[in-house]
Amino acid sequence: MQLEEISATGPVSYNLSMPTPKPKPKKKSKKAPARRPAVPSGAKLQRWVDLLAALLVRHFPVAFEELARNVPAYAAPGRSRATLERMFERDKDELRAFGVPIESKSIERDSGPMIAYLLKKGNFYLPFLCAAHDGGRGAPRRNDQHGYRASAELTFEPEELKAVAEAAARVRALGDPTLAGDAESAMRKLAMDLPFDGAAAEITQLVPTERPDAALFATLGDAVSRRKVVKFSYHAMSTDKTERRAIDPYGLFFLGSQWYLVGRDHDRDALRNFRLTRMSGAESNPREEHTADFAVPTDFALRDHAKSRQAWELGDADAASVLVQFDGKSGAVVAASKLGAPVTGKASQRRFAVRRLDNFARWLLSFAGEAKPVAPPQLDAEWRKLAERTLAIYE
Predict the structure, then answer these.
(1) Which runs of E-coded beta strand occur in 157-292?
(2) Euclidean distance between CA atoms 12 and 39, whole angstroms
(3) What is the DSSP string of 299-342?
(4) Can you say whether the dihedral through the CA atoms of 37, 41, 42, 43 is positive or negative?
(5) Nearest-CA neighbor of 305 among 258, 255, 231?
(6) Alpha carbon distance 222, 243 (integer Å)
């Protein structure tokens, strides 16, 4: 699963889209698909180790037949080829679920095209971590130049270490329990080689008051990664009604202190954004768990989609017309004053169509008084309330 970069100052996208392998179809099962492989048995763990070793010693894609020569379990007598291939497909998919980047490639053989597999060392082994200091840098001792000991080095300056710790603290505060756990795990691992406390102090910042349930994140993340149709109940602010929705999920993104799912709405046959805190009862299609239900359009990019709209433009509510006075001369204010629509006879004012006053008020507050709400009164009240909350943090 690949995560897009997270920016603390702008829209944040969380891209869970990834190529989905297409193994041979399996019989339909009523059981819900496992989100991650359970702790493997001794035999399975041995197969995984043998498979990884067979892939890592090769520099080119290799077919199953050749891999089977180095993985004894795949050449076990008394089992049909189809059974052994299914075992390999399960092992490969489970390793991928753990984050092992096994690639599938099409290669040409005398008998025709066939699928081969590749695991690049640079994508599998993490670099050696080093910390720079006044006397030079601290680097681990290497016994030889084979395997992971041939990996590159990554040296952190003191300021970079601080940035990593602060970034982890921001991720913990985003409201996603899964990401928070991953951030804490990553910091503990980094602290084994780098000179900082893996449990760095939290930074003070405003965070969303509503946080999506961890189980909801797990369901949606799994549906996005495997490209499975997901159904959920959604409460629309525009109609104040809750309806069941069926969606082809393209990805998750974080914008304006809230998480959103973007995908094609089956009933409306159009791209829609859904706020996670308004969802309930989410479930993905349990049928044909190893087969994708849909294909993400080639012209869709999650990062571009998230950046192409402002947080206050999202939602199902009717857009309210708001008026803003820009008084500052800083570059940020000048750039912001070019957004929205001009107001006749008032060059320093702009008009915006806003669906979420809370996000728009938060955006205005970032200009430290150089951009102020003029109308409607509800926006001015939201802006002042947010300013008081922010001031209370530092008093």
Answers:
(1) 230-236, 241-255, 258-265, 270-275, 279-284
(2) 33
(3) T--HHHHHHTS-GGG-SSSPPEEEEEEE---SHHHHHHTTSSEE
(4) negative
(5) 255
(6) 22
Q: Which amino acid is at 337?
A: S
Give the integer Cα–Cα distance in Å for 63 and 110: 13
* Residues 169, 183: Cα–Cα separation, whole Å: 8
Amino acid (one-letter) located at 94? E
Helices 81-97 and 42-56 pack at an angle, to 10 degrees, of 80
Instruction: Provide the pairing of β-strand 320-326 with 346-354.
Output: antiparallel
The residues of the chain scoring below 50 in pLDDT are 1-24, 26-37, 198-208
Longest Cα separation, the chain: 87
Question: Given this model, what pLDDT does residue 166 score?
Answer: 87
Nearest residue to 350 via CA among 175, 360, 358 = 360
Radius of gyration of the chain (CA): 26
Q: Which two tokens stand for residue 173?
A: 């505060």
